[in-house]
Amino acid sequence: MTQQPDRASPLAMLETMMLIRAYEETIVAMSEAGTGPGSCTSVGQEASAVGVVHALGAHDRILTNHRSAGHLLARGADPGRMLAEVLGRRDGYCKGKSGHLHISAKALGVILTSTIVGGELSLATGVALSQKMLAEDDGIVVCFFGDGAACEGVFHESLNLATVWELPILYVCENNQWQAFVHRRETMPVDEVRHWAAAHAIDSRSVDGNDVEAVHAAAREAVGRIRETGKPMFLETLTYRLRGHFEPDDQSYVDPAELAAWQARDPIALLQRRLLARDELTAAQLRTIERNVRARLDDATLFAEASPFPDISELITDIYA
Amino acid sequence: MTQQPDRASPLAMLETMMLIRAYEETIVAMSEAGTGPGSCTSVGQEASAVGVVHALGAHDRILTNHRSAGHLLARGADPGRMLAEVLGRRDGYCKGKSGHLHISAKALGVILTSTIVGGELSLATGVALSQKMLAEDDGIVVCFFGDGAACEGVFHESLNLATVWELPILYVCENNQWQAFVHRRETMPVDEVRHWAAAHAIDSRSVDGNDVEAVHAAAREAVGRIRETGKPMFLETLTYRLRGHFEPDDQSYVDPAELAAWQARDPIALLQRRLLARDELTAAQLRTIERNVRARLDDATLFAEASPFPDISELITDIYA
Amino acid sequence: MRTITVNDAVGEALAEEMRRDPRVLIFGEGVATKRHDLLAEFGAARVRNTPLAEGIIAGTAVGAAATGLRPVVDLLFAPFLCFAMDEIVNSAGKLRYLSGGQFAFPMVVLALSGAGWGVGAQHNHNLEAWFAHAPGLKVVMPSNAADFKGLLKAAIRDDNPVLFFMDLALGFQPGEVPQHEHLVPIGRAATVRGGSDLTLISYAKTVHTCMEAAHRLAEIGVSAEVIDLRSLKPLDEGAILRSVGKTGRVVVVHEASRSCGIGAEVAALVAEHAFASLRAPVVRLTGPDAPAPASFPLEQAFVPQADAIVSAAMKLFADIGSATSVTHADFPLEPA
Amino acid sequence: MRTITVNDAVGEALAEEMRRDPRVLIFGEGVATKRHDLLAEFGAARVRNTPLAEGIIAGTAVGAAATGLRPVVDLLFAPFLCFAMDEIVNSAGKLRYLSGGQFAFPMVVLALSGAGWGVGAQHNHNLEAWFAHAPGLKVVMPSNAADFKGLLKAAIRDDNPVLFFMDLALGFQPGEVPQHEHLVPIGRAATVRGGSDLTLISYAKTVHTCMEAAHRLAEIGVSAEVIDLRSLKPLDEGAILRSVGKTGRVVVVHEASRSCGIGAEVAALVAEHAFASLRAPVVRLTGPDAPAPASFPLEQAFVPQADAIVSAAMKLFADIGSATSVTHADFPLEPA
Ligand SMILES: Cc1ncc(C[n+]2csc(CCOP(=O)(O)OP(=O)(O)O)c2C)c(N)n1
Ligand SMILES: Cc1ncc(C[n+]2csc(CCOP(=O)(O)OP(=O)(O)O)c2C)c(N)n1
Ligand SMILES: [Mg+2]
Ligand SMILES: [Mg+2]
Questions:
Q1: Which of B98, B111, B161 is closest, CB to CB, to C51?
Q2: Mean pLDDT of chain D
Q3: Nearest CA in chain A to D234
Q4: How does pLDDT run across A230-267, given as a tens digit for each residue?
Q5: How far is the CA of A148 from the centre of ligand 3 (A)?
Q6: CB of residue B239 inside a 6 A radius of ligand 2
């Protein structure tokens, strides 16, 4: 499985990150205007999503959770169909039945999104078992989850089974320091989930989750190792949830100093500054990307808002196969 | 909380261990004769039960599981009432409703025995919370469970909560190498559960579970530390299930060499040899203990078999408080 | 009397009971963050955030309840109870019995469910019937602010595990709540409207839909009695049978799915114990046997509506011999 | 035809389906140890022991089913399902729907329950109704060797999650099973005895109790039809309604507790859709609303007996007006 070289380029990653941000901002605007529902945005966590997903091959599979927009868009999901899903419309990836919380897109290999925190961890081992037993290639499984999910017992059950059965899974813990309205430090004795993972004899690392190049390098290495050994690995992206848990959220319970410190490390601004400084990006290019992204989101919004609601008869379809 | 000095003496511990063995042999004999049900015996694990329980004070509380006879007897439970319970009789600790799998004895501080593997781990934190918030003394909670239970996610949830809330719990993992019909090595990547426990920032140790003096020393130290700090500790007793999972069990799936090696380390024979060698026990004393224990079990059997079955009306009592 | 919302009624019940009894405490994911008034008044030992792990939250409550505390745990949305079933069903529900009565489990589990937020089936699943089917538990699901307050206070004082289900759509609904101490006994239904021709039986938000239907039925000359079950276990069988004994016609309405739901229990009870009084088929009007969709119009359609209740009721006055299936939105009977 | 035990029928079904379809695999705690014949024939990749963790066993099955495998998982005793509810109910049951039909979940969950081993309520709890109440699942619970085999094979071939409950007491019961390929469609009840005066409806081991009762009723001139539901979801509503249409009298019998059980669903169905045919109250005869005790005589008393069925049936021929409560062993209606 080879990577399209451009997917791995910092510029490609920047564009995807900016697309994700613009998408989430669109959702927030709709929610504020009362034309869309609340949602769990991935603002601040774009580097984690893009760094990992841009390191995957076409046959790899992804499981994700309630904060999935970044993973889906990085995988190439159409923002129009995603928005349509968020709005509960017929052209959404799940015909509007999911709404924003459990969007999956089988054709893109985005399998089994669960909004039960920990659900994705319980399912990932089975998807990896299929990869191992049925796949003709060396496809692996990436399972995205949060620091909160790591507190559910099924996190340990999943890692243990993956170890014992030697399943090709990259566990990506997006440690954004928050678990809904509870700070991570209230729920675990250490700062990094990787200590828990390592106890399962899994190769476990953490990386600056706001530095997309660092995430991408770590993910590429991990993916390569998993293809080679068939064994699971654990990668923790240390990042921050810059907006609240669920829109709207006034974040009154958040320490302003902590928030400000992480805002100063916004992953998109960080990459832009770095690329400008390295002369890999010009101000004009940046404006072009911005315009492209804006245009895609405008189209997406038009598409989504034009999509009709599902017919009431859909209430009882897709229950049984 | 001070210990009765004699409870801590090797001789006292030997006698309890022999009582437990005789009890389990009684159950096995009944089961073979068809006069009693099958059960999960603790044969081979007596040192673990006695070493720990003899280190506790009167206000400490115990939670245990399906393999609980040793813990109960070491705590001073009446073998007659235990046998009556196993036989489903009215004078059993639970009026015959439990049978052998979930015997609890509130008056002895043996709280909430669960035969759902992992159940005791999910309950221990609450009992410890009561000790911490309500108790006038420095009572602690001991939670006994097996290596299999450590595979349930709730093991990790329990240890994590105990750490985060600083609960006075001594977790005692009786690692007997078997999880029903599956060898421990098939279910975890390391030989000792303590590696999993340590990841929760809990002071975690393992000890030769067939050496009652070693277990007792480790338990006393742990109990003292918990009383001092209020924080949980983890103690693993490395031992072996000398009989099958549940009577009758031909152990055809067990490696005979492994079984023989552990039989050679039978905790009772080991202590007897050691005490005889140290001149702390004479052959005559040993015979006396044997006779005492035998007599207690004979009485217990008579008591249990004489106890009537509960009245059918008991089917619907004790459901609601 | 004064008017407060359901959410405020819940807050009052918690505060009053914590004030009254120092053994009462509350914990759960975000409880200390969200209920800062309780935290301020009762301190960090009695108002606790937890790690994100429903199993150990519930298990801790069970262990604490057995040994002298009276915990209330907030497990957020009903589907998350799926991670706490062992602790609630196998431990809290059974260990009193299995121990021969040595332990009691005075604890309350709070959980939200029902349509209204467009979050789909992993947040919205009406699971109350599961707990009515399991031994040793009590289950309540109120419909108005006064009952929320009075039943929650009673649940906290009860020596048994009580599942307290909160219909999400009711949270901001205002209602009159007595100023003084207000307790509602568990196990007692409320006849919220008297009537003589037929009985509408429901609980939670669909009680209001039944009231609307009853109002419309009155306009066309049909006198409908409306019973709000409030307690789903124990069920107030006397109140149900008395009403049916009078009216001879029943429509049971709830949002939860039909198969083995509370409506099945009520219908079966009536078919056995009020058979001689029955003048028409016992009709259930329930949510479909489907996961709850997120899409707004589908989510709305999931919930039984007053129109459907009125037309189901009207059919009961037709000739019995010709009485045919009346199910919500005419969904097929079989899932396949 | 030849006679084999229920356990052997299960073993045959597994072996035949694994032979037929390489995507079928089985795993669980001790599965590879206990089913060494399957291990020998199909190898360690398809017959696996697991760590002791029901949640991940079930979750792995769900993930595998969504992506091309057809797993069978053995979760041992039904109460252990409490550790796997999220995976079964929130994932397997809902993710097809929530994904707009993108995924299917062809998987089978095996679980034992029922009296007969004296192991108490944490091993013995008849939970089948929970899964009949949850969307997206199928539930079967056979009563004889042939149906065990035929339904298990059908369950493995079904593209949906199927809960396969095995009544513990039946394991060693012999029965005739066809030599050749034998499939029993899910969703179809069996009329195991024809009759005209009343219908006894049951499933699992109490089908045999109903047969015994029918036999005794025949001796006193009452012709009882006996229906073995076999599938609890989908329920064969047609078969139930046809029989009641003929007999006008129904007793539903099961070991599971009454409140919101399968019997409630059957009774409610009849009370709605066969009302005009009913000539007597619809009676349920069930296990008490109690945890299952270990003590032998209590455990036996937990299960509905033929005596009680006969006397419940006889009461249905008394004057309707005087029909009174007929519940198992005359337990009080309310739990309190
Ligand atoms: C089993 C379960 N418990 C609780 C919730 C409610 N909830 C949704 S997201 C969330 C926080 C999750 O934290 P984390 O896993 O760190 O992910 P993040 O939201 O930070 O991305 C909670 C508590 C849930 N959806 N599922
Ligand atoms: C949740 C649950 N799963 C499975 C079982 C069946 N079971 C009873 S004991 C046992 C093995 C337990 O192993 P371990 O915890 O090591 O205890 P041991 O029996 O070795 O003392 C199993 C699988 C159970 N009782 N509960
Ligand atoms: Mg987080
Ligand atoms: Mg073990």
A1: B161
A2: 94
A3: A320
A4: 999 999 999 999 999 999 999 999 999 999 999 999 99
A5: 5
A6: no
Pick the CATH number of D2-177 from 1.20.120.1200, 3.40.50.970, 1.10.510.10, 3.20.20.210: 3.40.50.970
Q: What is the pLDDT of residues C36-45, one digit of tens each?
A: 999 999 999 9
Tell me if C135 and D121 make a contact (CB, 8 A cut-off).
Answer: yes
Per-domain residue ranges of chain C: 2-177, 190-330
The answer, for C319 touching chain D at a CB cutoff of 8 Å, is no
Residue A307 maps to a domain? no
Cβ A115 under 6 angstroms from ligand 1: yes
Ligand 1 pocket, residue A147 CB under 6 Å: yes
Query: Does residue B102 have its Cβ closer than 6 Å to ligand 2?
Result: no
The answer to the question of residue B314 being in a domain is: no
pLDDT at position D167 over 50: yes
Distance between Cα B209 and ligand 3 center (Å): 40
- Domain limits for position B141: 10-300
Residue C34 to residue A116, Cβ atoms within 8 A? no
Q: Does residue A61 belong to any structural domain of this protein?
A: yes
pLDDT (tens digit, 9 = 90+) per residue, B127-168? 999 999 998 889 999 999 999 999 999 999 999 999 999 999
Reply yes or no on whether the pLDDT at A141 is more than 80.
yes
Ligand 2 close to Cβ of residue B209 (< 6 A): no
pLDDT classification of D319: cutoffs 50, 70, 90: low
Work out the angle between the directed axes of helices B79-86 and B283-306 (0-180°, nearest 10): 50
Note whether C2-177 and C190-330 share their fold: yes
Nearest CB partner across the interface for A116, out of C33, C79, C293? C79
The CATH number covering residue B22 comes to 3.40.50.970
Q: Identify the pLDDT of residue C293.
A: 98
Search chain B and give the residue with CA nearest C58: B122
Chain C residues in contact with A253 by the CB 8 A cut-off are: 33
Nearest to C51 among A114, A187, A319 (CB): A187
User: Can you tell me the mean pLDDT for D127-138?
Assistant: 98
pLDDT at C319: 55
Residues of D with catalytic function: 123
Architecture of domain C190-330: 3-Layer(aba) Sandwich (3.40)
Give the chains touching B; criterion: ≥3 Cβ pairs < 8 Å. Answer: A, C, D
Burial class of residue D321 in the structure, from the number of CB atoms within 10 Å of its CB (0-12 exposed, 13-18 middle, 19+ buried): exposed
Instruction: Indicate yes or no: CB of D295 within 8 angstroms of CB of B151.
Output: no
Is the CB of A161 less than 8 angstroms away from the CB of D50?
yes
For the complex shown, is ipTM > 0.95? yes
The stretches in chain C having pLDDT less than 50 are 320-336
Ligand 2 center–CA B179 separation, angstroms = 6
Query: How do residues D184-240 score in pLDDT, each as one tens digit?
Result: 999 999 999 999 999 999 999 999 999 999 999 999 999 999 999 999 999 999 999
Per DSSP, the three-state class of D285 is strand
Q: What is the number of domains present in chain A?
A: 1
**Chain B hits for D120, Cβ within 8 Å:** 97-99, 101-102, 115
Is residue B309, in this structure, part of any structural domain at all?
no
Q: What pLDDT, on the 0 to 100 scale, is given for residue A111?
A: 83
